[in-house]
Amino acid sequence: MIGYLIRRVIQAVIVTIIVTIITFVLLHAVPGGEVRAILGIRASHAEIVADSKLWGFDQPLYVQYGKWLWQLLHGNFGYDIKLASPVSTQLWQHLPRTLVLAVIGTGVGLLIGIPLGIFQAVRRYSALDHIVTGIGFVGYGSPTFFVGLLLVQWFAVDLHIFPAFAPQATSIGGILSDPVALVLPVATYAFVAFALWSRFMRSSVLDNIVQDYVRTARAKGASERRVLWGHIFRNSLITIVTLLGLQLPVVIGGAIFIEYVFNYPGMGLLFFQSALNTDIQMMLAITVLTTILTIVGNLLADIGYAMLDPRVRYS
Amino acid sequence: MGMTPHPETTVEPLAAPGTLVAPELTAGPGQAPSSEKPRSMFRRGWEVFAENKLALVGLGFVIFILLFSFVGPLIYKTQQVSVTLTNSDCTPSAAHLLGCDDLGYDVVGRLMVGGQSSLEVGLAAAFVACLFGSIYGAVSGFAGGVIDALLMRIVDAMLSIPFIFVLIILAVLIHPSRITMIAFIALIYWPGPARLVRGETLSLRTREYVAAVKVAGGRNSRAVLRHIMPNAIGTIIVQATFAVADSIILLSSLGFLGFGIQLPQTDWGSMLSSGLNYINLGYWWLIYPAGLLIIMTVVAFNFIGDALRDAFETRLQRR
Fold first, then answer.
1. How many CA atoms lie within 13 A of A285 on its CB side?
2. How far is CA A176 from each of CA A105, A166, A172, A212, A259, rounded to the nearest angstrom?
3. What gap in Å lies between CA B214 and CA B207, rounded to an integer?
4. How does DSSP classify residue A154?
């Protein structure tokens, strides 16, 4: 187990380093891009050269990368010239809001999707299975932003049941104290998540239902309830944990659309505004931070997997 | 899952009596001569595919939407280049079946133009991503060892980045057009197919016919391109079909945020972004047509992909 853990952590560190290289190079691929983004398109060549020297953008890319990485290791994400504030201040303000919404939304989606997926697999080809599969197909094919757009149109504009805007409070407590405004953004997250997870859970349960251990359990005289929840469900969940880790980038990426549609001041909206301003430091920081979160999430999922499934540890 | 090569790479032993069969063409053990008349893999695949009603609906819809987008403008002629502000947000009428958008473009005509970019970008990006990803995955799996480990860590890294962020960064830094959109989407999409094909390659490379290439003195490139890739084609085609659906969603997502294809070109997602701006005014024709077309096209490609997967799997089982 210890050996597996060490190997897995080393892998995660290597992946993190590769990610920082990819994103850094990507954002600095346009020569003079960052200075031009700061000074605007009317800046003269001389001004760009002078400011490049001032901010250190005239140095070779690997030197810039090294300095940036060194600062990153100390928790310094750089200084946001457009917002005149350290990038990390902005990040720590916006990240918790995104996490709150993403966790609640995905959680609700899982709570609906997983039981439905189990039911579908157990009652395969029943009317309900077909209906849920149908809805799932639509949900799976709908862009997140369109789901949000429709919910606003129906429940905010037409029916006036829920507000069209997410809670605008800056603190987590303030956001949670406005549950009515949270309904539509959470529903958007949940609908997309439900479509995905009922589908994954259905096929995972179907894979497990035909396994030998299920027959063995039945042969030993275990009740159907025990076979389903004690054996099939627990084993199906193993797959789901891994997939949950792999889906993290999609969940975090989805935040940008939900936060944009509902004007929720989280990291997705912050990224959108930085993109409008060509705010390279901020875009770089958000991409790297969310990626590290994803890698840590995957690492935790894999460790959870290894704890649940001894076969992984020894292979 | 049998241990024999796919039918297309084998010949019936009786077909060439007395001749030396090339090493890569010999059948593995267990290739019992079947009593039924051998049919081509496409025939059998098509039969399984055609049994799936949803797949036929999906295929029908894809053909319809291709005709709508590319042939439609020849029949339903509209002005799609310059802005006509006097028609801004006009309601649906005989002259404009689905009304006009905020810039005065006829919505039906706009859906056709948007469909062209959505389909072109979706198909081309999926093709490029799957082609590159497949070769990358096959090389990685075939090479094994340190090379495989390194190549796969790059894939892991790419798959950990929330790719919509990368797409937006690219769209901000480089002026978005159809060609650059295809390149951007392919650039972030290839790691998925690469990982799948690599997994397939790991099991394929231990087969007898791949070993036979080595024995016969064939180069590694021959083993990868002529033997591993064709045998992984089922996985690749299924993946490519889903990739088209995903690429269409990605393009529309970018368009919705305003980072997509620029005026006077458009795509279905860009059309929806003005729908959000006017949502309080009840201009339903700015929301439903484009949104429904995205969903229906994506679902159609997913139906086809599912059926293709069943068709290829059945083919494997029947061998």
1. 27
2. 13, 11, 6, 46, 16
3. 12
4. I
User: A252 and B163 in contact (C-beta within 8 Å)?
Assistant: no
Query: How high is the pLDDT of residue B16?
Result: 38
Residue in B169, B279, B287 nearest the CB of A26: B169
Q: Which of B106, B99, B104, B101 is nearest to B85 (CA)?
A: B104
User: Between these two residues, B41 and A83, which has the higher pLDDT value?
Assistant: A83
pLDDT digits (tens, 9 = 90+) for B79-96: 777 777 776 667 777 666
For chains A and B, CB pairs below 8 A equal: 135
Chain B contact for A188 (CB, 8 A cutoff): no
CA distance A62 to A65: 5
ipTM: 0.84
Residues of B in contact with A298 (CB under 8 A): 160
Residue B162 near residue A253 (C-beta atoms within 8 A): yes
Most confident of A3-7, B34-38, B276-280, B289-293: B289-293
Cβ proximity of A162 and A183 under 8 Å? yes
Burial group, residue B98, by CB count within 10 angstroms (0-12, 13-18, 19+): buried
pLDDT tens digits for range B197-215: 888 888 777 777 777 877 8
Question: What are phi and psi for residue B71, nearest 5 degrees?
Answer: -95, -30
| Closest-CA distance of chain B to residue A49, Å | 20
- Whether the Cβ atoms of residue B231 and residue B10 lie closer than 8 Å to each other: no
Give yes or no for A287 touching B (CB within 8 A).
yes
Looking at residue A251, its amino acid is V
Kindly calculate the radius of gyration of chain B based on its CA atoms and give it in whole angstroms. Answer: 24
How far A18 CA sits from the closest chain B CA (Å)?
6
B200, B233 Cβ separation under 8 angstroms: no
Beta strands in chain B (DSSP E): none
Whether B85 has its CB under 8 Å from any CB of chain A: the answer is no
Distance CA A188, CA A151 (A): 8
The token pair that represents B281 in the structure block:
């005014």
* Cβ neighbours of residue B170 closer than 8 Å, sequence gap 6 or more: A26, B180, B184, B187
Q: Is the pLDDT of residue A189 over 80?
A: yes
Decide if B173 and A23 are in contact by the 8 Å CB cutoff.
no
Contact A18 B161 (CB under 8 A): no
